[in-house]
Design a protein that fits this description.
The chain is an alpha/beta fold and 513 residues long. Helices cover 42% and strands 15% of the residues. The strands form 5 sheets. Strands 3, 4, 5, 6, 7 and 10 form a 6-stranded mixed beta sheet that branches. A 4-stranded antiparallel beta sheet has the order 11-14-15-16, with no helix packed on it.
């Protein structure tokens, strides 16, 4: 504020206006205007001892202090209404404008309305205290203080990280320890927290850690994809706190300190040999903390939560969120992708395209440009397994895959007994049955080319040569036309031993003489 009294005092001592401006840190024009105005009104130094700069300004520039022409709202009423669910400053400003029009008065602009309301809320405190609405906001963070467990075999002390979540309205706290601060622990902590509260809030406020926020920004932060999926599952909105702005999540900052004192410090002498044992000890102290009475108001965290906040929580979905991880894969020429050393088919139209793969414990989902392409039950066990859907294959591959041993044998029996015997012999001639499928498919093509009658005759001719004919021998018979030759008549049995044995030497040949 301009030091009016000091300006008049220095001027009465004969100091120049330039030096007065330098001494009072104001412009020479301001000094000149005040001195000129005081001369016009006959105000000279010394002044009354109780006269303040504000009162002196009123005397010097009374005509400038005109009464405001715009009507101010009842800020006490505005502050009371803001505590109700669903009420916003924009709604209250619209109602205020309607009242001003009805009374033919000029309302404040929205920016001035918000500014004066903020000034009203800051009258009693240096920082504005925002009264949260029940079921509206949940704040989460990792505690700075850690816990520990002991390895039974080696005696090594293992560091455990503590997750803290708190409901902003009732200050109801949830605490759980984890072996790491990775993505799986972060998501699992939220799932257990929602189950503990029995519902979710409309807003979730985390810190800017990488497991929750990929890119921190004051205007449009980029939420981690898995974290965003979890928020959608529980019908909540993730609004990260600003970087280096702990006042954006003051409740969890305070809850971290309370949990460090009343839970972690309280169990510091207990020896826990597993995470489950540690969390059991934490839960006992947590229940006692939530049931502890407030110091400056009635009730406890648990009582306020049960009576005032729990009815306003959003209902949980039928099933808890299942943790999913994402991976980028390229569709190979065999229209499969490789995920964790397992192979899953994709429609062949996406060969050599990059796709997004969402993996859960039981399902593999494939997305291309945010559109789901297909899904498979997740394979477990021995690496190298294939999950192939017939609809993902090209037409010529479908024709091949539809044939199996039973179908080949059934087709051969419809042609004839010799063809069936030949097909069975071809399938049995390989260690792996599938190795004979190509030969059987080739027989089908021979039947299309030469007809089933000639194929049956060729198989009969091949079986007369060997009990295990091959595809090549049957093809040769058809190509050379041997199947069309008549079978030679069977010869009659010889009537005498000499005829049956050919030329026989007589007794005279062996005689001695």
């Amino acid at each position: 504020m301009t030091p009016y009294r000091e300006i008049l005092r220095l001027y009465s001592q004969g100091i120049s206006q330039r030096n007065i401006a330098l001494s009072c840190a104001c412009s020479r024009n301001t000094v000149s205007k005040i001195i000129q105005r005081a001369g016009e009104l006959g105000i000279v130094w010394p002044l009354e001892k109780d006269l303040t700069d504000g009162e002196l300004r009123q005397r010097l520039f009374a005509e400038a202090a005109q009464a405001p022409t715009r009507k101010h709202p009842d800020y006490a009423y505005i502050h009371k209404e803001m505590a109700k669910s669903g009420v916003t400053l924009s709604l209250l400003w619209n109602e205020y404008c309607e009242n001003c029009r009805a009374s033919q008065e000029i309302p404040l602009m929205y920016s001035q309305f918000c500014h004066h309301y903020q000034q009203y809320t800051m009258k009693s405190n240096a920082t504005m205290r925002i009264h949260r609405k029940p079921g509206e906001q949940l704040e989460v963070d990792w505690a700075g203080q850690t816990a520990s467990t002991i390895d039974r075999e080696t005696g090594e002390i293992m560091t455990m990280y503590v997750f803290v979540g708190v409901l902003a309205y009732s200050q109801y706290v949830y605490v759980e320890a984890f072996a790491s601060q990775d993505q799986e622990s972060w998501i699992t902590a939220h799932i257990h927290m929602y189950q503990f509260f029995g519902g979710s809030t409309r807003v979730l406020i985390p810190d800017n850690l990488k497991t929750g926020v990929e890119k921190a920004s004051g205007h449009s932060p980029v939420i981690n994809k898995i974290y965003h999926e979890m928020a959608e599952h529980y019908n909540t909105a993730v609004i990260p706190a600003r970087v280096r702005k702990p006042k954006d999540k003051p409740n969890v900052e305070g809850a971290v300190g309370v949990a460090s004192t009343w839970i972690l410090a309280a169990i510091r002498k207990q020896q826990c040999f597993s995470v489950a044992e540690l969390n059991l000890a934490i839960r006992e102290k947590l229940d006692a903390l939530n049931a502890k009475s407030f110091q400056k108001k009635e009730g406890s965290r648990h009582s306020v939560f049960m009576t005032e906040e729990k009815p306003f929580l959003l209902s949980l979905p039928a099933t808890p969120y299942e943790l999913a991880t994402w991976k980028i894969a390229t569709v190979q020429f065999n229209y499969h992708i490789s995920v964790e050393k397992m192979h899953y088919s994709i429609p062949y139209e996406y060969i050599k395209h990059r796709v997004d793969v969402r993996m859960t414990r039981g399902v593999i989902e494939v997305f291309y440009q945010n559109h789901r392409v297909c899904s498979h039950p997740r394979l477990h066990g021995k690496p190298g397994q294939y999950s192939t859907v017939e609809d993902h294959m090209p037409e010529n591959h479908k024709k091949f895959i539809q044939w199996n041993a039973n179908r080949f044998i059934s087709w051969a029996q419809s042609v004839g007994t010799h063809t069936a015997a030949s097909v069975q012999a071809i399938l049995n001639s390989h260690k792996v049955e599938q190795q004979g499928y190509r030969s059987c498919m080739a027989l089908l093509k021979l039947a299309d080319k030469h007809g089933v009658i000639r194929l049956e005759a060729a198989c009969a001719r091949a079986l007369s040569y060997t009990p295990r004919p091959s595809f090549q021998s049957i093809k040769t018979i058809l190509t050379t036309g041997q199947d069309r030759l008549e079978a030679q008549p069977e010869t009659q049995e010889p009537s005498s031993p000499s005829e049956s044995h050919g030329f026989i030497r007589g007794a005279d040949y062996y005689g001695r003489g």
